[in-house]
Amino acid sequence: MTSLPAGWTPAADTLAGRTILVTGATGGLGRASALACARAGATVVLLGRKVSTLEKLYDEIEALGAPKPAIYPMNLEGATPRDFEELADTIERECGALHGVVHAAAHFAGLQPATEIKPEEWMRVLQVNLNAPFLLTQALIPLLKAQDDASVVFVLDDERRVRKSFWGAYGVAKAALAGMVAILHDETDNSSLRVQALLPAPMRTALRRMAYFGENTLEQPEPDASAQAVTYLLSADGRPARGGVLDLRPTTN
């Protein structure tokens, strides 16, 4: 586990000259990460399901005076390896380079006993939370390794919770994702590509509202602090966190 350096905040040029792809860009952490990256000077490629929501975020980023973002509509539930290859080709053609990926997309179907999970839902959860991050990263690795410094950020979840009863396919996917991060790091440790992971603190998102229906999610902070940590991992300052898990959880949680 690693920690965010005390007092670290991104400057307006922290990610200047970098192109960053954010999946799940209109979700809680994805949206906050896209805005944080844009404020730090990155050209952000926004990947999400709904064009209208992506366009709204596009307008928000433009209003910041940040580099002009790009929109790439994609539903990860049905995406194929060829779809990810086409995405990589499009980024190379339209953007010329890629310096970072934030895997912020997530799908959570709610808490339920494993024996009651429908096969289709099991496959859907694993597709969005595990298969898609792997296949997308695999397709983008040549672009990323072409840079002097590049980073892929995977978002994990609290294993103290999601490896317990009723977390089902989501818990399995997040456990497997942590293993995949370790393997990819080991395979890329001597390259210009950094594989890193983020373990956010509790935050105000739709996913948390579904999972913790007994709490008032509005009492949790917005995802902004976690998004700032994403910016750190994508920046040159985040090199010491290579291969590690940046743990933002409060010690008392």
Automatic annotation (TrEMBL):
Bilayer-spanning residue ranges: none
Domain of life: Bacteria
Keyword Oxidoreductase on entry: yes
Family: Belongs to the short-chain dehydrogenases/reductases (SDR) family.
Recorded GO MF terms: oxidoreductase activity
Chain coiled-coil ranges: none
PANTHER family xrefs: ALCOHOL DEHYDROGENASE (PTHR42901:SF1)
Protein name per the record: SDR family NAD(P)-dependent oxidoreductase
Pfam families documented for this protein: adh_short
Keyword Transmembrane found: no
Species lineage: Bacteria, Pseudomonadati, Pseudomonadota, Gammaproteobacteria, Lysobacterales
Keywords: Oxidoreductase
